[in-house]
């Protein structure tokens, strides 16, 4: 007969629930997505780097939903699959999907993740709201390395 202590039982239940829970590390957080391809490596140029950094988007994630922090506060959905993050924004005028691949934790100061914009798919019929994001697709950002800087304010 096998004897199981309460401590061991609680430990096993905790492991099972932890393994079954969502691994959504983005939920409840806000990130500024910055072009990392132009980041400078030397400490002497740190001030120049701050002035020349190129901010692409600011996104707030919450349980599968994402909001672009702009004057329109556009919303959509996001999904994490292994080392990929897919962000899709839709409205009556069209949609845009950004796929960030090779998503990895970063050791750089103020940078939570690094990734590559591996795919951009969009269809836009208007000139407002989602169309303001057309610059991402038209500005040669596919293949761009980006960093996710967490907003802690």
TrEMBL record:
This is Lipoprotein.
